[in-house]
Model the fold of this input.
Amino acid sequence: MPAAACAAEAPIGIFDSGYGGLTVARAVLDQLPHESIAYLGDTAHAPYGPRPIGEVRALALDCLDRLVDHGVKALVIACNTASAAVLHDARERYDVPLVEVIRPAVRRAVRATTHGRVGVISTRGTHQSRAYPDAFAAAPVLFVRSVPCPRFVEFVEAGVTGGPELLECARSYLEPLKQDDVDTLVLGCTHYPLLTGVISYVMGDGVTLVSSAEETAKDLYRVLADTGLLRPDTAGAPGHSFTTTGDPDEFRRLARRFLGLGPEFDHVFTGNFRRGVKVEEVS
Done:
């Protein structure tokens, strides 16, 4: 088999610090159904947001190294905090194409806004990193308001996507963006697509929601097509694996919810692995 064909049949490596990146994996499964996925969630060290940037960089690069060693043909950093911390290092470190979650969403928001007023919701760590406002800097005519929504992650991981408590929380978080009259809202955390219903309800039909997960999958398709790495339709059924650094049972339970998979897909969850980097040794 030619080398190019072998490369095209290799899996796509997707990395996240926890569970939110599974929404990116779901979008990739939907938009590139012939592709194989090797997913690695660093749940033993989630969340990354409160950690020093040097520690985030070391943890993220260790996970990305493992995916490259696994033989992936492309890397997806499906974590906003990690994207902000390691993107430049990763582009220099690896020979495979690399896609992250921030710039694809920003490009879509720039195209989608009708009045030049854009909101971004994210975790506190991503908000404090200013990764999104900095990415919007190339379009200085836009008004951009970033608001942290830390409890949204707790709701999602608890399986709560509706109800009065979540609705009250969403109204509290999103009120400043409504007052700013934003017409486009970036879901700047990969957990947030699972809350699209309540977010859309609070913001109203006139606000366009931009999912970083969906836009990242679109960007991945473009990158693979441009580099001749799309897996051929004739290559047979794709194979997937989902691995964690933490508790495999907890990972399997939450992954089923995020991916919409039943127990018949248990074979794609490959347990956990022991990593070489210890948090206390990272400076």
Confidence is low (pLDDT under 50) at residues 276-283. The radius of gyration is 18 Å. The chain has twelve helices and ten strands.
